[in-house]
Amino acid sequence: MGENSNSVLVIGGGIAGIQASLDLAERGIKVELVEKKPCIGGRMAQLDKTFPTNDCSICILAPKLAECYRHPNITLHTLAEVKEITGKAGNFKAKLLQHARYIKAEECINCGICIEKCPMRVDDEFDVFLRKRRAIYIYFLQGVPSIMAIDPEKCLYLTKDACRICEKVCEREAIDFEQKDSEVNLNVKSIIVATGYEPFDPSPLVNLGYKHLPNVVTGLEFERMICASGPLKGHLIRSSDRKEPKKLAFINCVGSRDMKYNPYCSSVCCMYTTKEAMIAYEHDNSIQSFIFYIDLRAGGKGFREYIERGQKEYGIKYIKGKVAKIIEDDDKNPIIIYEDMNTSKMKKFPVDLVILATSMIPNKDTPELANILGIDLDKNNFFLSNAYLPLDSSKKGIYICGCCRGPMDIPNSVIDASGAAAKAAENAIREG
Amino acid sequence: MEDIKMGVFICHCGTNIGGFLDVPSLVEYAKTLPNVTFATDNLYSCSEVGLSLIKEKIEEHDLNRVIVASCTPRTHEPLFRSICQEAGLNPYLFEMVNIRDQCSWVHMKETEAATEKAKILIEMGVAKALLLQPLEKFQIDINPTALIIGGGIAGMTAALNLANQEFKVILIEKEPELGGLLRYLYKLYPTHDDASKVLEVRNLVENHQKIKVITSTEPVKIEGFIGNYKVSVKRRDGIYDIDTGIIIVATGAQVLKPEGLFGYNGSTIITQLELEQLLKENKINVKNIVMIQCVGARNEERRYCSNICCMTALKNAMLIKELKPDANISIIFRDIQTQGTTYEEYYRKAREKGITFIRYIPEKVPIVKESNIEVYNDYLNQDISIPYDMIVLSTPLIANPDSEDLAKMLKVPLEENHFFLEAHVKLRPVDFATDGIYVCGSAHWPADIPEAISQAYAAASRASTIISKDVLEVEGAIAEVDEDLCVGCGICIKICPYNAISMDDNGIAHVTEASCKGCGLCGATCPEKAITNHHFTTKQILAQILASGGK
Ligand SMILES: Cc1cc2nc3c(=O)[nH]c(=O)nc-3n(C[C@H](O)[C@H](O)[C@H](O)COP(=O)(O)OP(=O)(O)OC[C@H]3O[C@@H](n4cnc5c(N)ncnc54)[C@H](O)[C@@H]3O)c2cc1C
Ligand SMILES: Cc1cc2nc3c(=O)[nH]c(=O)nc-3n(C[C@H](O)[C@H](O)[C@H](O)COP(=O)(O)OP(=O)(O)OC[C@H]3O[C@@H](n4cnc5c(N)ncnc54)[C@H](O)[C@@H]3O)c2cc1C
Ligand code: SF4
Ligand code: SF4
Ligand code: SF4
Ligand code: SF4
Ligand code: SF4
Q1: Residues B291 and B384 in one domain
Q2: What's the sign of the alpha-carbon dihedral A64, A69, A74, A80?
């Protein structure tokens, strides 16, 4: 790759990184897209449907994944991480660590025979641990690139020098245990960071009983539970007795707006609890949902109307109340104990299933990446942005977009991403 | 006669289709249809694997017609067409059958009948595909110029970015000066910088070599198509034409004047915007101030939340408190709209600064009396009375009164509150369905400055994907007039929503290829049947009707 190649490095292949890459590629600028997971797609791939239009998340995402894969101006580096950045705007040098996939990309046709035969069962991170995958796997069904990867920490051969069954059954000889981690060096003019977020683990809030009470789940788990291609095939049942829950309680602001955990508002949970309640109702009209909230935040286009629809057409009840505790009865039905804001009295409210709308928090490795890039973090560990230059990082030539600079929904992540592409293009041209 | 070899790919869409329809039986059925030489199912046709399979089978079986029975052409047809093209097939020899949105999803409870319906839909697709003709796309030249309508913060930001990318930019503003609403603001949340400081960007815009700013000017007529728009603008001294490749709409919004609400009088009972002016002039000399939120918003008439007025109230409350620490300020609100990291912190700061927050419910709105406000406090479950010297009403941003005219000129839609409506709420938030036109800032939806700026950059990016190209390929499935049959009645000209038809010198209708969207209206309307809508010809549609069992 020549000194003066007009290219941009995009870190993170969620919807933000994907949109930024596609805009730049269409603009005629070469893109190096780095994703640490085996496939691009990010969190949006895990969602069932998306507010405010309730269209199927993967259905509208999949064409973008394919476009990214096929675009001649985009080079995908999956299972890769940025290890070092030197230089300055207009002339950055990036060192990537390319993890071995142990698969020959040109040979694997995603036939899945190896998966069937692989004896090693592993918790599936994509399905938020609600089902098992194998040590050889595809990150998710529609994932791109649509080839296998071998999990080096779980594979029997790579950990214990045993097995190699996949190698025997693969007719295309696509398994390659000789692959080693390698280094990739790139020269780019601008950098876009789009590393997204993680969901907050609510276990420290012991009063809410997550992980102790079987019928208390998180919002992201619920997305997978109701998703037709998820672990329950979209048939909503609760784990304690495999019964269909009829009465659902959603609890907003779990871990958010809470000085002990995340002082900020996570921006999307008021909307997605409404969405999840709507989808539950669409699956089964006898389901009744209750949403416990402090303020209902719905400032986006059509959002207020969406919540009104939730009330009128889906019978969702919104309860302004602070949840103090969740306990359970003998049948493991959760009981919510909350302070009714209208009467300031403590009340009990039994339901079948509780969904916690947990915060969106920065990825654990954000500080490390900030260090590598030499850019600042805000006090919550999101990448720091400025009100009047919202897409600029603290360093010239490096731009930030999507949830890595603060919680936001998909429309705003897409806006951010296109915006960051414009900034990166401007920088590439001016510093060229 | 051409030897037609058709391939049919039936998609499970995971369980979206496969969970309700008997896909294997559809495959078997497809194999019995005329000229179908290959049929198979596909777990996700649009996934990389699914696409590769289609490509491989086209090559392996030498297919010259391809059908995918799956979801909707609205989102997926371009992708499947491009796969056909990659496999060496003319993309218009592809036909899509929707067995999801129009079948499995709507008949989830009657799977057998739904499978039968899917068979008919596939048969109809086959009947049409037999008659498909290869079509060529058209190439059009692109004028690498951007026209931006509206010189508020959004329009100026987009202009600067595009100009810095070395495109020629023309920025038109109907007022005598740039700046938009920002000109009337005092200090800005969340940083409390002076609005005038942020407005210094005006100098950069006005002095940029690549930007031509034209003030006191607004569009009156817009013609043309992506890459080649002609915009007539009205200035004091007449009408001028501007040629441009793309258009960005950044016309902002207006503040609702709350005539007749809560005793609004413009002196002791004012709007936030009027308060900004008092702050600018340092004219606050009252002690008891009450702000009421959602005035004229979130009600029957205007159901939406205007997104910016809660932050504006917090800002002005804190600014007054800084100027007059002994002031008593209460904010009567419904929900405090402070999403995200910075804004929630800002809300916390306002509470720490001693501003009082009282929630009201829409069933019991506050009542403004001579010198006090009565409001039912749902937390205390009783009416309380707050004395005031000044009431500030937080009113929403509303769409410009001329947005409808502008939308008509641009041939783009508005949503129910008359803000501009984008092509796809999630994935194309700043694009219009009409190619080459984009939207940003409060013209799209009440936005604050950080949002308006991000959107402006986004619109600039989308625009640059077009004007960075010399030529662009456009749709080949368009209308064509048979000159021998056309009698020049002109009905098609009136009916075409894209202004794609004009009358030539001989009184014969003529279709401008680049403007035509192939919507079919003209063909259906022409009394002489002189118009062919390629890819949806009368013959093709009749064949489908017959295949569906029609007569
Ligand atoms: C339960 C739930 C429901 C939601 N529902 C909706 C909804 O209905 N509608 C809506 O609009 N929004 C919804 N959201 C929000 C939505 O998920 C986000 O807006 C969106 O996913 C943000 O996209 P992103 O690209 O910024 O981040 P992500 O989707 O997090 O993508 C970031 C990508 O970067 C990769 N990455 C991270 N670190 C690195 C690194 N160091 N190097 C390389 N790659 C890295 C990650 O693997 C990932 O692929 C929901 C969120 C939750 C939690
Ligand atoms: C009281 C109040 C206080 C606020 N305080 C803050 C704050 O503290 N912080 C913050 O971030 N935001 C604040 N805002 C929001 C801020 O004003 C908007 O974010 C910003 O003005 C949006 O910019 P814009 O460019 O989209 O629209 P506008 O500022 O409305 O600009 C639109 C421009 O387009 C022009 N125009 C309209 N129609 C046409 C036409 N047909 N032809 C040509 N030109 C046309 C207009 O004349 C105008 O110049 C406040 C808003 C209000 C009402
Ligand atoms: S590795 Fe081999 S067996 Fe496994 S999916 Fe790929 S081609 Fe099939
Ligand atoms: S070698 Fe590893 S990946 Fe292959 S089958 Fe055995 S455990 Fe699975
Ligand atoms: S979006 Fe709603 S649920 Fe989420 S943190 Fe903010 S106020 Fe709480
Ligand atoms: S921003 Fe606040 S004041 Fe404005 S409409 Fe929304 S809730 Fe009401
Ligand atoms: S097909 Fe539609 S867009 Fe094309 S000329 Fe006819 S009416 Fe106009």
Answers
A1: yes
A2: positive
For residue A419, give the nearest of B15, B379, B454 by CB distance.
B454
The domain that holds B343 is classified in CATH as 3.50.50.60
Cβ neighbours of B342 in A, within 8 Å: 264, 387, 406
Best residue among B298, B316, B417 to mutate for probing ligand 6's pocket (most ligand atoms within 8 Å of CB) is: B298
Residue in A418, A429, A431 to test binding to B, most B beta-carbons within 10 Å = A418
Name the 3-class secondary structure at B294. Answer: coil
Mark whether B75 and B117 lie in a shared domain: yes
Do B350 and B322 form a contact (C-beta atoms < 8 A)? Answer: no
pLDDT mean over B472-485: 91
Q: Whole-model pTM?
A: 0.92
| B445 contacts on A by Cβ (under 8 Å) | 300-301
**Cα distance between the two ends of chain B:** 26
Task: State in Å: Cα A106 to ligand 3 middle.
Answer: 11
Among the three residues B428, B446, B471, which one is the final residue of a domain in this structure? B471
Q: Which of A103, A150, A153, A178 to mutate to test the pocket of ligand 4 (most atoms within 8 A of CB)?
A: A150
**B26 part of a folded domain:** yes
Distance CA B60, CA B3 (A): 16
Q: Are residues B412 and B466 in the same domain?
A: yes
Distance B250 CA to ligand 2 centre (A): 9
We report the CATH number of the domain holding residue B130 as 3.40.50
Closest by CA to A393, choosing from A152, A159, A193, is A193
User: What is this model's ipTM?
Assistant: 0.96
Contact A422 B458 (CB under 8 A): yes
Give the tens place of pLDDT for each residue, B403-447. Answer: 999 999 998 999 999 999 999 999 999 999 888 999 999 999 999
Q: Is residue B303 part of a domain?
A: yes
Question: Are residues B268 and B246 part of one domain?
Answer: no
Instruction: Please judge whether B49 and A110 are an interchain contact, meaning their C-beta atoms are less than 8 angstroms apart.
Output: yes
- Full domain range(s) for residue B349: 257-395
B363 plus B418 within the same structural domain: no
Q: Are strands B246-249 and B145-149 parallel, antiparallel or unpaired?
A: parallel
Domain count, chain B: 4
Asked if residue B81 belongs to a domain, the reply is yes
Q: d(Cα A256, Cα A248) in Å, to the nearest integer?
A: 21
Our answer on whether the CB atom of A138 is closer than 6 Å to any ligand 5 atom is: no
Same-domain status, B339 and B467: no
Look up residue A84 and give its amino acid: E
